[in-house]
């Protein structure tokens, strides 16, 4: 029988993050215009850096911000490095991010990307964050949304790191963005475009923008049959087109055995990681992300 003491102990365990973070995740009910009713949670370390960086960390389908907070090390790394992490949740379409509608694929279009941008704006203002240190990362659906955020909000975001996702615009026009609602052509790896075509897809999401785009790092497992591996090539072509860079060389065993780091141009705008034999999804490499973002 469950005694009161053991019940309290279980509650205590449940409320303690397993990710080693000092503080709890805090819900932010009102962050401004929220056209698609997303949920915002934020991790603010006790020792916040002056003019801190912000990482927007996006869960996969059927996930939630609280789960991504638990499963990743971003929060405990925020304790040591003084940055803020936003862990939002998508409450719709099997808890996937909308990466398909015209609204979300348009700058200030009133879709999910717009709500996420408003979370960033709110956080920049409230915590006096450095507007040049705003980063986005995510896994699977969150990796897809990482590409979409980079394409729709190049004015806000400085760098992205997307795990096991697809190119921004790959699902354009699909009736949904989840395994049960999406047109499967994209995740099956059957949407192929040239670099020039992908570049136009990105430019069309914010046609008035004439500035630079966030530097991008993309990850994919060769054994991924859920969001098929050929999607890595399409992501690469997309950002090669945007940045005007091309393949320079491979570094095998980077960042670890079994992985290959593909470098494009001089490697400061675009790198890709191919993980041999890894399925869906590539484990999050927080330390590599922080380096890419220039936080460490
Ligand atoms: C870029 O856009 C800004 C703002 O719309 C404009 O003032 C500037 O002239 C544009 N620059 C170029 C090179 O087109
Ligand atoms: C670079 O690495 C990728 C992933 O392992 C591989 O597909 C590609 O053929 C390699 N390219 C060269 C030129 O070695």
Structure description:
- By secondary structure, the protein is α/β, with parallel strands linked by helices.
- The chain has one domain: Alpha/Beta hydrolase fold, catalytic domain (Rossmann fold), CATH 3.40.50.
- The chain contains eight helices and ten strands.
- It has a ten-stranded mixed sheet with strand order 1-2-4-3-5-6-7-10-9-8, with helices on both faces.
- Helix 6 crosses helix 7 (230-243).
- The N and C termini lie far apart (49 Å).
- Mean pLDDT is 95; it is low at 7-15.
- One 2-acetamido-2-deoxy-beta-D-glucopyranose binds at residues 250, 260, 262, 274.
- The site of one 2-acetamido-2-deoxy-beta-D-glucopyranose (NAG) has 4 residues, from strand 9.
- One of its GO terms (molecular function) is carboxylic ester hydrolase activity.
Quick recap:
By secondary structure, this protein is an alpha/beta fold. 29% of the residues lie in helices and 17% in strands.
Structural class: alpha/beta
Topology, number of strands: 10
Q: What are the low-pLDDT stretches, counting only 5+ consecutive residues below 50?
A: 7-15
If you average the pLDDT, what whole number results?
Answer: 95
**Name of the CATH class:** Alpha Beta
Strand order of the largest sheet: 1-2-4-3-5-6-7-10-9-8
Helix content: 25-40%
Radius of gyration: 19 Å
Q: Largest sheet, described in full?
A: 10 strands, mixed
Main location: secreted
Keywords: Carbohydrate metabolism, Glycoprotein, Hydrolase, Polysaccharide degradation, Secreted, Serine esterase, Signal
GO molecular function, one term: carboxylic ester hydrolase activity
Signal peptide: 1-20
């Amino acid at each position: 029988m469950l005694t009161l003491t053991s019940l309290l102990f279980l509650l205590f365990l449940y409320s303690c993050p397993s990710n080693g973070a000092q503080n709890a995740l805090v819900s932010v009910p009102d962050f401004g215009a929220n056209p698609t009713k997303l949920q915002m949670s934020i991790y603010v370390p006790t020792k916040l850096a002056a003019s801190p960086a912000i990482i927007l960390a996006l869960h996969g389908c059927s996930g939630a911000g609280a789960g991504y907070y638990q499963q990743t090390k971003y929060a405990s790394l925020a304790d040591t490095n003084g940055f803020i992490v936003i862990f939002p949740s998508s409450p719709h379409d099997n808890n996937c991010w909308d990466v398909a509608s015209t609204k979300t694929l348009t700058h200030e279009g009133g879709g999910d990307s717009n709500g996420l941008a408003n979370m960033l704006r709110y956080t920049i203002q409230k915590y006096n964050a450095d507007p040049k240190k705003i980063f986005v990362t995510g896994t699977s659906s969150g990796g897809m949304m990482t590409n979409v955020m980079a394409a729709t909000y190049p004015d806000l975001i400085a760098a992205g790191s997307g795990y096991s996702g697809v190119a921004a615009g790959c699902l354009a026009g699909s009736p949904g963005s989840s395994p049960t609602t999406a047109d499967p052509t994209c995740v099956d790896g059957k949407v192929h475009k040239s670099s020039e075509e992908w570049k136009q897809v990105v430019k069309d999401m914010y046609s008035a923008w004439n500035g630079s785009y966030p530097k991008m790092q993309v990850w994919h497992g060769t054994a991924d049959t859920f969001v098929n591996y050929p999607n890595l090539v399409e992501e690469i072509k997309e950002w090669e087109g945007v940045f005007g860079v091309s393949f320079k060389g491979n570094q095998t065993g980077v960042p670890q055995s079994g992985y290959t780091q593909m470098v494009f141009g001089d490697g400061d705008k675009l790198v890709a990681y191919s993980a041999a034999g890894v399925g869906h999804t590539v484990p999050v490499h927080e330390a590599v992300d922080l380096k890419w973002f220039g936080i460490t």
